[in-house]
């Protein structure tokens, strides 16, 4: 009779365990996430010294901002005067702030759910094993043990199905960081577009809806899917740094927006023209060299952004202040500054030639017949004849043939010009072999 109670006992143990995982607090009072700055009271009833937080934070329940400076207030004002661009911008920016907070809260609860699901699944495994062991010790029938085990297995399957459906990715932290960065770039573009002529409440509403949708289950699922597909199809295993990729996206977006400001622009501006525009309008102090300034001036004229006198050819309704504001928005994270610094940086010195390339350059003038220049195979053969003692007669004959009659005579001696010496030839070949490339190539040729 007692054995029949095992399923009931197991269910009771399961219920007790799951009850400890029903919120943000663990079985021992541990809290998955800290309270946020805008939460009015600690979520953890076990938290100690909350009075010290109150001294710093104060009583948030008494904070009652004017309705006019809330998202709802900005929305009402913009909707009442839809043609007012300033009200439309304030509405959009305030809505982005609300969307950002809700997006972070969504990722936070996904992380908590993932942690709780993992802990519960582990608990189920442990309880299932414990129940089966105890029932075995009590000589319960195999059918009873199997039934209890099946119950615990079903519980794990339910948890797995739930997490697969609702948790957008196993690596929530990484995806969250990428989505935040993606939305930051999108916000930058929308804020710049909001400075353009014709921006109104309806455009702000459309842009805000699109921005908010980027933090949704379907959008994040697609982002993860696209990222996996890109990684699989990438032909270059060495990717550029995230900062470089972000700057490239910013420059592209800036070129698209800035191209709409000019009367004669044929489309989006190239990155070089964007840099020239930024250097001319906002960063003139960074351009010290007259030649560099002239290069930027020429780039703007070639792109038909300025006339012969250097005056900007803006569209009707676009002012120089609008141009400055758009450039400032896109340089919010320093992307334009970095692009300009790269343009102004002195060119890197050409890497010194080494190995066979160095040898060809160094030894060619020493020969009586310097044209055409020796091939790589001839240089390797020459290196062997001049600097490698102990070669067999057959090896010498092969190298002499490889060197060719323009470099060596029938005895394998170099045919130098009237002023060159054998010591010069040896020194040039020795220096070229500093990296061991000539010796390695010779070893391969002799095999």
Brief description of this entry?
The chain has 18 helices and no strands. By secondary structure, it is mostly helical.
Q: How many DSSP E strands?
A: 0
Q: In the residues, how many domains can be counted?
A: 3
What structural category arises from helix and sheet content? mainly alpha
Q: What's the overall average pLDDT, rounded? A: 78
Uncertain stretches of 5 or more adjacent residues: 235-241
Question: Cα distance, first to last residue?
Answer: 86 Å
Write the layout of secondary structure elements.
Elements: H1 6-19, H2 50-57, H3 71-80, H4 85-137, H5 142-166, H6 172-193, H7 201-213, H8 217-233, H9 242-259, H10 271-281, H11 290-302, H12 320-330, H13 335-344, H14 355-363, H15 376-387, H16 393-403, H17 422-432, H18 437-446
What tags apply to this protein structure?
about 450 residues, mainly alpha, 3 domains, 18 helices
């Amino acid at each position: 009779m007692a054995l029949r109670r095992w399923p009931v006992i197991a269910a009771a143990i399961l219920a007790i365990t799951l009850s400890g995982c029903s919120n943000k607090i663990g079985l021992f009072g541990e809290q998955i996430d800290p309270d946020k700055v805008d939460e009015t009271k600690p979520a953890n009833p076990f938290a100690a010294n909350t009075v010290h937080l109150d001294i710093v934070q104060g009583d948030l329940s008494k904070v009652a901002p004017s309705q006019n400076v809330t998202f709802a207030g900005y929305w009402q004002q913009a909707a009442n005067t839809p043609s007012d661009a300033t009200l439309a911008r304030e509405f959009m920016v305030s809505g982005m702030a609300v969307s950002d907070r809700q997006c972070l809260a969504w990722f936070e609860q996904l992380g908590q759910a993932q942690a709780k699901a993992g802990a519960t699944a582990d608990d189920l495994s442990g309880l299932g094993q414990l129940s089966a062991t105890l029932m075995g010790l009590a000589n319960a029938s195999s059918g009873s043990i199997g039934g209890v085990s099946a119950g615990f297995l079903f519980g794990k399957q339910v948890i797995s199905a739930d997490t697969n459906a609702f948790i957008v990715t196993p690596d929530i932290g990484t995806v969250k960081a990428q989505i935040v960065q993606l939305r930051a770039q999108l916000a930058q573009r929308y804020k710049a577009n909001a400075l353009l002529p014709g921006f109104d409440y309806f455009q702000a509403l459309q842009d805000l809806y699109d921005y908010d949708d980027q933090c949704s289950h379907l959008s994040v699922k697609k982002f993860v899917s696209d990222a996996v597909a890109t990684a699989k199809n990438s032909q270059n295993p060495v990717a550029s740094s995230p900062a470089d990729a972000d700057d490239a996206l910013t420059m592209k977006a800036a070129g698209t927006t800035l191209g709409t400001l000019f009367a004669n622009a044929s489309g989006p501006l190239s990155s070089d023209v964007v840099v020239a525009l930024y250097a001319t309008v906002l960063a003139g102090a960074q351009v010290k060299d007259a030649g560099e300034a002239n290069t930027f001036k020429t780039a703007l004229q070639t792109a038909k952004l300025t006339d012969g006198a250097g005056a900007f050819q803006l569209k009707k309704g676009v002012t120089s202040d609008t141009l400055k504001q758009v450039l400032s928005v896109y340089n919010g994270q320093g992307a334009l500054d970095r692009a300009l610094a790269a343009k102004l940086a002195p060119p890197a010195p050409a890497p010194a030639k080494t190995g066979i390339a160095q040898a060809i350059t160094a030894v060619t003038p020493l020969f009586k017949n310097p044209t055409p220049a020796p091939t790589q195979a001839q240089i390797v053969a020459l290196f062997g004849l001049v600097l490698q003692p102990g070669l067999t007669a057959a090896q010498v004959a092969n190298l002499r043939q490889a060197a060719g009659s323009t470099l060596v005579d029938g005895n394998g001696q170099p045919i130098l010009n009237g002023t060159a010496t054998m010591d010069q030839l040896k020194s040039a070949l020795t220096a070229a072999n500093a990296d061991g490339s000539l010796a390695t190539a010779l070893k391969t040729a002799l095999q």
